[in-house]
Each structure stands twice: as C-alpha cells, then as structure tokens.
Amino acid sequence: MNDPKPSSPKPGDQPDELARRYAEALERLSAGSSRAWQGWLERQARGDFFTLPDPAVAAKALTSLGQQFLLHPQRALEVQQQLWQGYTSLWQNTARRLSGEAPSPVAQPDPKDRRFKGKGWEENLFFDALRQAYQLTAEQWLKGVHEVTEELDHDERVKVEFYARQLMDALAPSNFATSNPEVIEATVHTGGANLLQGLANLMEDLARGEGLLRIKQSDSAGLELGKNIAVTPGKVVYQNELMQLIQYAPATEAVDRRPLLIVPPWINKFYILDLTPQRSFIRWAVEQGMTVFVISWVNPDERYAEVAFDDYLIQGTLKAMDVVAEVTGEETLNTIGYCIGGTLLACTLAHQAARGDERVRSATFFTSLLDFSEVGPLEVFIDEEQIRYMEQHMARRGYLEGTHLANAFNLLQSADLIWGFVINNYLLGRAPQAFDLLYWNSDSTRMPRRMQSFYLRNMYLENRLAEPGAISLAGEAIDLGKVRIPAFFVATEKDHIAPWQSCYRGAHLLGRRPRFLLGGSGHIAGVINPAGSPKYGYWSYGRLPRDPERWLASATHHPGSWWPEWRNWLKRHSGGQVAAREPGGERFPPIEDAPGSYVQVRVDATARTGT
C-alpha cells in the first residue's frame, strides 16, 4: 500500500508534538531502510548495476578535464587570478556592508535559481557573502572549463562541460545542512526533526528505486487518475496489445466532420494532454467542437522485448486510423503528434504516401524532431559507447526503464529537478506538493528493447529519417518529402529535449511548406499553455526561410496561448460540421471509461506491490 503522507515538521512545535514526529520519522526510517536494503540486494542478485547516465562516461569526462587543466597551466592560472579578483571585490563589498553601507552585490542572484530564494541568503551578511562566493566560483570554473577544452572534439567537449556543470551544481552551499540558512533555522526550531524526517524521506526514495535514488517530485496522495486528473469524459472504444484508443464524449451539439486523432509519446503517458480540467488540451479541443480520439500506449514489460518501431506504426497509428474511420463513418481525419508521437506520425504519413493512402488531411506536430542532426543538451547521452551500454542492459531486461530516462532528463535541469528536491525533501524534511505536471513526469514508462535500439540508432545517432528512403518501416521506404498534406508545427523557445531550431529544420523535410509557430517556455509548459492564459506567448511568421534565426528575426510576438490560432487554422481542414457523435458504436462498443486501464499501470515500487 502507499506510504502514509508524512507530516512535515513546523517551527515552534510543542515537545509532545515533536516527540510524536520523531517517533513517526523513526518508524518510517526503519521501514524505508529495510525496503531499500532489500531492493538493493535483489538488484545485486540479478546483476543489475545499470544506471543512466553511465558513471564511467562521467568519470572519463572529469578525468579529461583534469588533463586539460594540466596541459594548459597558463589558462588555469588566469582563471584563478580572475577568481581571486572577484573574491577581493566581494571582501571589500562585505566590509562596506559591515560599516553600514549598501553596495550592489558583486554577483547578482539569478532570479530563476530557486535554491537561493530564502530571505536568509539576502538578509544575513555571512550567507549573502557565501552565495556570492559560490556564484563567482561557478562562473569562473565554467569559464575556465570552456577555455581549456577548446582543443577537444565536439562530442568530448560537450560531455566535459556538462559534467563540470553537474559538479558545480552539486557543490552549491544550499545543498548542505550547515550552509543553508533556511535549513539551519528549521533545524533549530524543530530540534532536528526536519533532518530525521528528511532521512526517512531519503530511505523511502531509495526503496522506491530498489537501492538507487529515485527522488519523489510530487505528492501522489492528492492526485488520482480519473478523479482529479485525466477526467475528460470518454470511453475506450478499442484495444490491442500495444494500445487503447479513447474517444471523448462531445461537449457541443455539432462537431467537425473530420475527427481528430492524437498520437502522444510513449516515453511518457498521454494524459500530459489531459491534466487538471483547467489545463487539459483534450478537454479544450472537445469544447471547441472536435471529435477527439487519443492513443493510450501500453506500459511494456519483458514480454514486449521484440516489439519494433514498425509495430507502433502498424498496431498503433494505422490501426487507430482504421478504427476512427469505422466508428465515425468518415473517410478522412486530422491528426496531432507530440514528441516521439510526432516522429511516429511523420513516419506513418510517409508510409501512407508511399501507398497512396490519402485519408489524413492535416497533421500537427508538437515539439517533434524529424531532423536529429542537432538534438541540443541530449547529445551528451548519445554516442556509440552509451547506446551499446543501454543495449546491453536492455538485452538482459527486455526493456529500458523510464526511470533511467527520467534521471537523465532531470540532469539537464539539475538545479530545479534534483537539488531543489534534495533541499526540500531531505534537508527541510518536507513532503513535495501535489502538482499535476510533476505527478505526470514521475509516472514513467518502459521502452521495448528492439524499438528503443532502433530509435536511438536510426534517429539520434545516424539521423536517417532526414534521408529519403534511408529507413524502411512496414515494407515501405520512408521519404518525408512525399508528405504533401497541410501541416502545422509547434516548437517551444526553451525546449531542452526537442530544440526549436531542430524542429524548424525538420519542418522543411516535408514536401509541402507547413505553418510554423514558436511558443514560449519549454517542452511541456510551452505546449500546455491554455487558451486564456497570459503566460509565455508565442511567435509566428508566414514564411519559412531555411535559417531558423532569420525566421525568428522576422516573426511577430503575440501574448497568451497559441491554442486559438491553431484552432483557426484547423477549421479550414475540418470538412464542415455534423451532429455530435457519442463514443463507440455497434462494431466498437465502449470497453471502459476514460482514461482506461493501460494508463493506470505504474512501474514504481508501490505499483509492484499491487497498489
């Protein structure tokens, strides 16, 4: 069963209350330690020492960095001199503050860095100086790393700089109980109960990861699929071994003639598009008068080891299109693909083009890569050595655990997604808040061995999708240039998974110039930006020059959500209006209520115990 939600220690707790909290924490600590140790032993027994990213690659990168500093002592000395100059300025600045002056900080706090948000970092002279000293050190360290690695090849330099940043993030004074003023204050006021609670939280996270740390990012007790998240009314109208197909109930009397099929990623679950009602893209689309279908992918286990990328096309997108046609009686439809779901959709469209299948009349791509020549920060995890490392693990397990991918993605934003939770969960002893986006983010899925190997090698490593006919799927050579239907691309400004410039280049691979729109924020928030929201905004420009930066220079910025603009575009491909359709039909009677049973399968430790 799920662990009871721990009560976080509060300043000023009375002795009896503190005693109760100590007892509660000790009980949780004992139970969590036992489960973590047992999980570690089980992992050792099956010879599972796999972690992602590969610790050997990180060690090699840092060793290479040390060698570069030895080979360039003059540059290292220059960096050190600049650092001491910064320290001198900081000392002088601190002395002026001691004398009652109010000079400007030597190192301005980054407003986006939540690790130093507490008042103690600004109001306490010692901690303010400590923060500035760290920021000066980090700035000069990263500058020095950049300078001494100029002679390395691109791939090695990317790894060295990435792990140098990870090291500096780990050494931030906010990450230690004795150098974080908020933690010190909590420890004094609770008599150390926060640290005991934090240790219990740590043991429980180690237990969830079977001896490896799996940081809890969201309180799952406050969120439940089908109750307050993924609650848009609908029915599962079809299922096979790979997916369930959900059709949503209409919210208007008339709907677009052409139904809309959404192909979500299977690296995470479809309900990123159906979070709480206020942020649900699916609910909004239904309310706009669309008949919406969405694929809910299975969460595979070792039985799916030989499932190929082709199977996702045949049993996934193509089969879903067949069912949509039979349920609605319509011969044509519109489509959306998100992330890897967009990559699959593009492959499906090219497959259909090769066979003269013209039923798809428009395609929308959310943060989808078709050109993998530049994949941004993810390139640090992509090379022959690391792919072989993953393949060896998948050969034993039959799949790649989504938790490993989540760990790698978290490292790309380690200050927020790792160290922010280390401070909150382990040093302050608090439970994370219930947050639909982070709840979804922690609800990971597995990747079948054969499919994942194909995807990593053919897309990321070799970029063969960008070459006409370089890959074949389900008996057809894939040529994106043969896809000539209207298309709409949505990329996001700060996407660290699908960089917008790469999405832009991929849009040029289609045989017809699409609409391209750039949303604010990142891979998720830039897409899940509800109509009516004043946040982020977006850029648009009617032409599509080859150079993405030239496009951006000519683009116009608009406030708010891009959803209404996309809806106006889609209306031109809707085929008119018909009476609203209820889910299912004579041939496909509803199987169960949305969100269905496939999405309910979780892969964390509590799920394996049947809860």
Write the layout of secondary structure elements.
Blueprint: H1 15-45, H2 55-71, H3 73-98, H4 120-123, H5 125-148, H6 154-170, H7 181-190, H8 193-208, E1 234-239, E2 243-248, E3 254-256, E4 260-263, H9 281-287, E5 292-297, H10 309-328, E6 333-338, H11 340-354, E7 360-366, H12 384-397, E8 399-400, H13 402-411, H14 414-427, H15 436-441, E9 447-448, H16 449-461, E10 472-473, E11 476-477, E12 487-492, H17 500-507, E13 515-519, E14 538-540, H18 548-554, E15 556-558, H19 563-571, E16 577-579, E17 592-593, H20 605-608
Parallel strand pairs: 4-5, 4-6, 6-7, 7-12, 12-13
Antiparallel strand pairs: 1-2, 1-17, 2-5, 3-16, 8-9, 10-11, 13-14, 14-15
Task: Provide an overview of this structure.
The chain has 20 helices and 17 strands. The protein is of the alpha/beta class and 611 residues long. The strands form four sheets. An eleven-stranded mixed beta sheet has the order 15-14-13-12-7-6-4-5-2-1-17, with helices on both faces. Strands 3-16 form a two-stranded antiparallel ribbon. A two-stranded antiparallel sheet has the order 8-9. The model is unreliable at 605-611 (pLDDT under 50). This is PHA/PHB synthase family protein. Keywords: Acyltransferase, Cytoplasm, Transferase. Its main location: cytoplasm.
